[in-house]
Design goal:
Radius of gyration: 24 Å
Subcellular location: Cell outer membrane
Strand content: over 45%
Structural class: mainly beta
Number of domains: 1
GO molecular function: long-chain fatty acid transporting porin activity
Pfam family, one: Toluene_X
Shape: elongated
Membrane topology: Multi-pass membrane protein
CATH architecture: Beta Barrel
Number of strands: 20
InterPro entries: OMPP1/FadL/TodX
Number of helices: 4
CATH topology: Porin
CATH class: Mainly Beta
Helix content: under 10%
Order of helices and strands: HHEEEEEEEHHEEEEEEEEEEEEE
Amino acid sequence: MAGGAAIAALLGAQAAEAAGYAVREQSAVAQGNSQAGAAARGDDPSMMHFNPAALGWLNGTQVVSIGSGIFPSPEARSGSANRAAVLGGSVIGGSLGGDAGVDAFVPAFYASTELSDQWRLGLAVTSPWGLVTKYPEDYIGRYHALTSSLRTINIAPTLAWRPLPNLSIGVGLQIQYATARLSNAVDFGSVGALNPALFAAGFRPGRFDGRATISGDSTDIGWQIGAQWEPMSGTRLGLSFRSAIFQRLEGDASFEGVPGPLALSPNFQNTGATAKLTTPEVLNFGVTQRIDPRWTVMAGAEWTNWSRFRDLTIDFANGRAPSVTEERWRDSVFLSAGAEYRATETVTLRTGFAWDQSPVPNSTRTPRIPDSDRYWLSVGATWQALPNLALTAAYTHVFVNDTTVDLRDRGPSDSNFLRGDLRANYRASVDIVALQARFTF
């Protein structure tokens, strides 16, 4: 029943942007330390998201429910757009789009149970990948992007084994559902202006704007494996690996506002569509060190294989040419450090700092994900309200480097030909508030 409720909540949630399209907000306990050392921690069921071996240290039966509010604010502060030179190079008028971020609520659910001294069984329901950006109809980059939405749900049954008192090994199955929706404006006036007959009939760049929308979903599976080791009392090391998941999204491509003379063209008729989405591999290392009964310090390093994302290609069932957007993302790292202080028998305080490297190169950055390097600063606390109930809260402010979208039309064979040139300077920040309740039985 609890797992079903968690899945229903995730289906209604909007995922939010992090570096790339990762959603890191899966644990309020880890959030308080900017996720430092999360791959080495085994004090909370939510740590199985970062390393399935964390499950091996948990006693009894435990259930965790988490809700994270994410408040991004990517906003273009200046910019301009122009149509292709062969179409006259006219200015694309409109607004800078305002705040393109969409506030999000991201829930997560975890459960663990002790099968024996050596074996533990767990379940995690999370949303590890996603983004939502949304621009108004008059945005100057509307031919590149209006709405971009990716949401995922991971259901991960997990098993951990402790062959030695100081060693835990875990493995998890990742059952992932993904759904995506992309839309942008279409300059049908420019499309028609390329045809002499339609040009004579009054088609001109910017005269007939419509909309293209592509949506689809898919379910596929992957896996996760990890280990945690205590070489000495108070020191724990953790290493985990999450596999790539190869999704093939299937859905529909639809067009609105197509002028009559173009309505019969197969290029602008509603049809089926497919696109490949590969969520990347993640290698996560963590270390925690207890200094004394009150102080613990931790650090982490995470590598994500974003270089799998070379382009966004959409194939159409009616045989029209694929839509291709070049991406050429690069691998990235997430480095974090934090500390935890046990202030009283019932209150634990946390803080942490992290550097989150963007995988998006300057040359292919788009308004769908105007991403840049970012820096996390976090605080958090846990209160043991009752012997079987622990409440945790965390707050993170993410400082995002200013960045530029600079997309150029390079002629009729270029994917930006009918989208035009776009230059926009972005400023952004993100605020994250997470609340968590852990019940033990």
